[in-house]
Every structure is written in structure tokens, then in C-alpha cells.
Design brief:
The chain is an alpha/beta fold. The protein contains 14 helices and 14 strands. The longest helix is centred in the C-terminal third of the chain and has 22 residues, at about 390-415. Its cofactor is Zn(2+).
């Protein structure tokens, strides 16, 4: 999981990161997907060869604005609208490492589909390193920025469109998002596009009036550089990333059409670059299939309510709101797919991919257990070395492969396969032997 041109990247990384935070008078961007020279792209910035899918300006089955790499601004909006118009949702996977990001990109390429890569505040801090002090969220900010640069660099190489997002941000975590928006503003001055694609602000525990007021302030700022805002109404039950809503009243798990309409009306006064994570029985965490009682009709009723309010100004498909699905583990596939017909264009995945990564490592250990008990000595002989088995790349790759497999199921459930219109992904070449990128086992 290291670049084959690691020495070159090491020499250019400092200047690349500096450009993200240094204003210049030169602004070029790739937000419309029309730049044959990959202006603003990481491949161009650091001189990495960009061939095959990476070099595409657009995809056969998608609007021309949508290109390989991280999307923002109109290109991002075009992708989300395409999802809504064609009845699919994009998997949004929480990542805590470059290994997890690479697994997501590999899965997207294998499924001929876009993907959303997102970081939580805790995941961002972990990405930056638990040995780094997090006073004023500086470790979480640095970790998310580092993850953003990795995602930008590799998304182009994998040749898939990516929305780069950050997950739940409560009121107390707003300084974290402030730092990330600032990073995008600085990056925009140099590249003509933000570093990230979008951010979620979750003020669902605050009064609705305060929730909307703060969200409008952030959307006003974010819209200027092409960032999208995801906001939450109601409470997603269960527990995730240290936030425990398992004891909240049942009525808090279901949003009301009037609240959703007020949100749509108020945010639209600022910009159309927003999505709504409305509550319809969603629960974070892992549960047996059928134990999560979703009510997608809440979303349908809200779309009808808002369309009636808009009258002739309602969109032709009568789906004015772009909804986000949180807490889907354990949900029936039928409920998930019904929600897609009601305007869900993004579904968060965290619990299931945490398990899939761990399960891959667990299965690797079970398979090679007798070769992992010491540096020397195994069933093949007391003097036989075990280095090729305990090489960390081995168990990490096992986690990646298992996660790619689990994400294939997610892409299928969300009807998000064969979206780009490319031929089937070919297997990676030149990976024979550990010195050439392969793995020894």
C-alpha cells in the first residue's frame, strides 16, 4: 500500500500540502470535467502518469461534467441528480486508514460505480495518529486533510468518481469542520475547487430553529467554494463513534413532513447544495435482519407534502429533496430499495465494513495460525522463517479483499452497479513478488 514512486512523492508532498493552504492568484479547476490536461488534478500536481480510466474526461453513461477523481460543485450535483433520476444510491463508507480508502476505490472500480468516502471526527483523529495531541481538534483536522490528499491522489488512479465527505458533526465538534472548510477555501484559491466535496453538520439534538440557523450560516460559506452540506433531522438511534442515542424516545426516530419542508424551504434560500438525513426509524450499529423497523413511507409522504407546497415549481419527478440513509445495518433489502424510489441518493456504511475488515484478518489468522506464533518455526520445520506470513501487508490485504466483497453486496443492494458504462475492471498487473508490489502468500 505504498506508492511505487514513494521517493518522488516524499519530495513533492511538502509543496503539495503547502499549496493547499497558500493563496495564489492562479485558479484552475476540474469541477466541470472538461479539462483534458487534468488541470487541478493530483495526477497533474505531482506528475503521476494518468492512463486508461484515469485519463478519461467523462464516463459513457454519466453527464459530461463527471470525471475520475474527487467531485465537487456542479459535477457532484450532477452525479447526485443522476442517482435520483435513475433510482440508485451511492454507498458512503467511513474510512480510518489509507488501506480502507484503497479497498473502497477497488470496490468502486470492480462495480463500475461511483463511491462516497467519508471520515468521522474520531476516524480523522485515528488517521492522523493517536500519538498526536487533539487539543482544538488539530489531530482530527490534520488526519482528515491527510486522508483527503490520499483520496484525491488515488481516486484518479483508480479511475472512479468519488465524493469526499465528512460524517456526523455535532455542535461541540463544529471547530473540526471549521478547520476543514478553511482547508477547502485555501485549496480553492489554488485549484478552483474545494479540498473536500461535502460536510455533514448534525444538530439534530438542538431545537429545529437553531439547527436551521447554524446550517444556513455554514451553507452560505460552503456554497461559495462548491461544498455541499448534509444536515440531519430527527435522531438516528443506536451508537456510533462514541455517540449513543440508544435510549432516545421512539418518536425522535421519525421526522415529520412539516419539519422536512421547513428545512427544504429555508436552505433553498441559500443554495441547492444540500442533502437531508431525515429519520425514518434508522439505527446505528449491528442488528439481526428485520430488527430495524424502517418506515420509508415517511420519506414518500414528505416528498408529496413538499411537492404540493411547491405546486408548479415542484420537479417533474416529484422528488424535491435528496435524502441520506443513515443506520442501515440489519435493514431489509426491500426497505432499502423502496427508500431509493423516494429520493435516497446516499447510504452510510460503517458497521458492516468494520466487521468485514476484521473478519478478513480473523480468517487469515485462522488459516495461517501455526505460521504466526513466532518469527521462526512452523509446521514446515523448526528453522523455517515466518516473515512472509506476519508481514503486516498480508493481514491488511486480507481485510481489504473481504471488504471489497462486502461492498459488492452494498453496491448491489443500492442498485449502484454498472453506472459508469466502462468495461469490466481488469486485474492488476505486475504484482508478482513482494519487491514488485505483490504479496508472498
Amino acid at each position: 500500500m505504498k506508492f511505487s514512486i514513494a521517493i518522488f512523492l516524499a519530495s513533492t508532498a511538502s509543496s503539495t500540502f503547502a499549496n493547499a493552504f497558500t493563496p495564489t492568484s492562479h485558479a484552475v479547476g476540474r469541477t466541470t470535467g472538461t479539462s483534458s490536461a487534468l488541470n487541478g488534478g493530483m495526477s497533474n500536481d505531482v506528475g503521476i502518469p494518468c492512463t486508461e480510466e484515469c485519463a478519461l474526461e467523462s464516463f459513457p453513461n454519466l453527464p459530461d461534467s463527471i470525471h475520475p477523481g474527487v467531485l465537487s460543485g456542479q459535477a457532484m450535483m450532477d452525479l447526485l441528480q443522476h442517482a435520483k433520476d435513475n433510482g440508485y444510491a451511492i454507498p458512503a463508507v467511513n474510512c480510518i486508514s489509507s488501506s480502507g480508502i484503497n479497498a473502497c476505490l477497488e470496490a468502486a472500480k470492480a462495480n463500475d460505480a461511483p463511491i462516497i468516502i467519508q471520515f468521522s471526527s474520531g476516524g480523522s483523529q485515528f488517521y492522523g495518529g493517536k500519538g498526536l495531541d487533539n487539543t482544538d481538534y488539530r489531530a482530527a483536522i490534520a488526519g482528515a486533510v491527510s486522508g483527503a490528499f490520499h483520496t484525491r491522489t488515488m481516486a484518479e488512479q483508480y479511475g472512479v468518481p468519488v465524493i469526499l465527505h465528512t460524517d456526523h458533526c455535532s455542535k461541540e465538534l463544529l471547530p473540526w469542520v471549521d478547520g476543514l472548510v478553511s482547508a477547502s477555501e485555501r485549496y480553492y484559491k489554488t485549484h478552483g475547487e474545494p479540498l473536500f466535496s461535502s460536510h455533514m453538520i448534525d444538530l439534530s439534538e438542538e431545537p429545529l430553529e437553531e439547527n436551521l440557523s447554524i446550517c444556513k450560516d455554514y451553507l452560505t460559506r460552503m456554497e461559495k467554494v462548491g461544498l455541499l452540506l448534509e444536515m440531519e433531522l430527527g435522531i438516528t438511534g443506536g451508537e456510533e463513534d462514541g455517540v449513543d442515542n440508544s435510549d432516545r424516545p421512539v418518536e425522535d426516530l421519525y421526522s415529520k413532513p412539516e419539519e422536512i419542508y421547513e428545512t427544504y424551504r429555508e436552505l433553498n434560500k441559500v443554495s441547492d447544495k444540500f442533502t437531508v438525513a431525515a429519520a425514518f426509524g434508522n439505527v446505528h450499529g449491528v442488528y439481526s435482519p428485520g430488527n430495524v423497523k424502517l418506515d420509508p413511507e415517511i420519506l414518500n409522504n414528505a416528498q408529496k407534502f413538499i411537492s404540493d407546497k411547491l405546486g408548479d415549481k415542484a420537479p417533474e419527478n416529484k422528488l424535491p429533496v435528496s435524502f441520506v440513509f443513515h443506520g442501515g445495518s440489519g435493514s431489509d433489502v426491500a426497505d432499502i430499495q423502496r427508500s431509493l424510489t423516494y429520493g435516497v441518493i446516499k447510504m452510510n456504511i460503517d458497521t458492516d465494513t468494520q466487521w468485514s475488515y476484521w473478519e478478513g484478518i480473523k480468517n487469515f489468522e485462522e488459516k495461517y495460525h501455526d505460521y504466526l506464533q513466532g518469527q521462526i518455526g512452523n509446521p514446515d520445520g523448526d528453522d523455517k522463517p515466518n516473515k512472509k506470513y506476519y508481514d503486516p501487508r498480508e493481514c491488511m490485504r486480507a481485510g481489504e479483499v473481504n471488504t471489497v466483497k462486502r461492498l459488492e453486496q452494498a453496491f448491489s443492494d443500492l442498485k449502484c452497479q454498472n453506472i459508469l458504462g466502462l468495461k469490466s475492471a481488469a486485474g492488476a498487473k505486475n504484482v508478482l513478488g513482494p519487491r514488485r508490489g505483490g504479496l508472498p502468500v
